Amino acid sequence: MESRIKPVEYDYFGYRKQVEALCKAYPVLQSYIIGRSAAGRDIWALRVGRASEYVLYAAAFHGSERITCSLMLRFLEELCDTLQHDGELAGLKAQHAMFGRGLIVVPLVNPDGCEIALRGAIGCGYMAPRIAKMCGGDFSRWNANLRGVDINHNFDAGWEELRKHEREEGIYGPGPTRFGGFRPESEPETLALTELCRNNRIRHVVAFHSQGEVIYWNYGDKQPPRAAKMAEIMATSSGYALDVPTGLAVGGGFKDWFIETFNRPGFTVEVGTGKNPLPAGQLPDLYERLREMLMLAVIM
């Protein structure tokens, strides 16, 4: 199968075209809007299968990590194609593996941040002068949303402690990265994910970031049932190392919130190596290395 998801940089409208094309090609894939960004851009969820509970994949929390969005679309494309043609994915008969199971994917959690990092002032709209001042004119390093809040610092898990650490690092207000907002769940992008989890029975979540080739699987001393074994399987399949976050990477994140709120497994996978943004040309190699893990994490 020749993939329609090319190793190129997709802007927001290019991303929407890919989502629409995938849904048209594969009736098994259902799309719906779970919220809108601070700039009013749609935040899409894509669902495969119907089940009593779902696995949730979420990606592109940060503007410079947008390759994870393409990774999600590439996996959805192959999964849907193998389901539609009764084929195999990573050595597994897709229809049998997915029987009674469901997957929800939010490929682009932070559409504003990705648009700003990719397109610069054009992606900022009316906020361009303020954002240019905050990032010193270097839009490429923008990870936050339109309001200068880092989405993966804005979840209500150890948020107060994380806020203290931010201040110790000289982070007091909106900026390109690592400011967790003035209260948890203050941002529409954060709320879109938390409401999705509250309104659906989610078995476990996997958040995709870049880079480092590591997997984070616990939150402090919180280790939900099955989490350690699942993490071992994911690490063995991908060749990534299991790791424990430190410093400003502790708390405030999506998988941290999910673990603390539901006592169910949550994982953060840091894909690839190098300097963000990873070149779009790395997508085929990234996907080939992770495709088995992506499939196993759906059915575990």
Characterise the protein shown here.
There is one protein chain. Helices cover 39% and strands 17% of the residues. By secondary structure, it is an alpha/beta fold. The strands form 2 sheets. An 8-stranded mixed beta sheet has the order 1-2-6-3-7-10-8-9, with helices on both faces. Helix 2 (67-84) crosses helix 11 and helix 9 (227-238) runs antiparallel to helix 11 (283-299).
Structural class: alpha/beta
Strand line-up of the largest beta sheet: 1-2-6-3-7-10-8-9
Task: State the end-to-end CA separation.
Answer: 26 Å
Work out the radius of gyration.
18 Å
Weakly predicted, low-confidence segments: none
- Overall form: globular
Percent in strands: 15-25%
Which series of helices and strands comes N to C?
HEEEHEEHEHHHHHEEHEHEH
The average pLDDT is 96
**Tell me about the biggest sheet?**
8 strands, mixed
Number of distinct helices = 11
The count of strands amounts to: 10
Q: Please estimate the helix content.
A: 25-40%
What is the secondary structure topology, with strand pairs?
Layout: H1 12-25, E1 29-36, E2 42-48, E3 54-59, H2 67-84, E4 88-89, E5 92-93, H3 94-97, E6 103-106, H4 111-119, H5 121-124, H6 128-134, H7 159-168, H8 188-199, E7 202-210, E8 214-216, H9 227-238, E9 241-243, H10 254-262, E10 266-271, H11 283-299
Parallel strand pairs: 3-6, 3-7, 7-10, 8-9
Antiparallel strand pairs: 1-2, 2-6, 4-5, 8-10
Helix pairs in contact: 2-11, 9-11
What attributes characterize this protein structure?
300 residues, alpha/beta, eight-stranded mixed β-sheet, two-stranded antiparallel sheet, 11 helices, 10 strands, 17% strand
